[in-house]
Amino acid sequence: MKSAWFISTAAAALFLAFASAFFHLQAQEAKPSKDWLLEAPDDTTRFQLLQRYLRGFDQPMWEVGHRYLGIYDALSRENYDLALYNWDKIKTTIQNGYLKRPARRANAESMFLTATWGEVREDFKSRNKKRAWDGFFKARSACLACHVAEDVAWMNDQNIFQDTASSKN
């Protein structure tokens, strides 16, 4: 009797051990892959995934906003090198943005990148406090005007523009 109980207990334990290992292996295999792009079935699907992942003009504008605030802070510290660095990155970011949304290119170039960008860059390079702040406000005005031209004037009603309506100094 003892041996029958022992054999049935050992068999049950072995069964549970194998079942547990089997389900554990299946659970490991069922984990989502980290190769979401490489495992796409074809290049068309990969490009569609990339296009969705890279989104539209909103992500570049988020970065522009972050760098815009960085310039504001840099000027308040009279850190003209940092202001210039962020200003250069803003240009690159906007250009990369209209690669994804070509309809944004005309206003971005005519209102911002053609004349304003170079003028503001020279204002920052001057390392003259008043001139640098004047450049900042020139850039701010271009941003606000571009939002109106792009039919997103409601973008102008947010803290980033209200908080930077005057210099910290």
Summarize this entry quickly.
This protein has 169 residues and is mainly α. It contains eight helices and no strands.
Fold and architecture overview:
The protein is mainly alpha-helical and 169 residues long. It has eight helices and no strands. Helix 6 runs antiparallel to helix 7. The radius of gyration is 29 Å and the shape is elongated. The N and C termini lie far apart (93 Å).
Give the low-confidence spans.
none
Average pLDDT for all residues: 89
**Structural class assignment:** mainly alpha
Q: Major beta sheet, specifics?
A: none
Give the amount of beta strand, in percent. Answer: under 5%
Q: How much helicity do the residues have?
A: over 70%
How many individual helices?
8
Q: In angstroms, what separates the terminal alpha carbons?
A: 93 Å
Task: Name the helix and strand elements from N-terminus to C-terminus, one letter apiece.
Answer: HHHHHHHH
Q: What sort of overall outline do the alpha carbons produce when their principal axes are compared?
A: elongated
Number of strands: 0
Q: Tell me the Rg in angstroms.
A: 29 Å
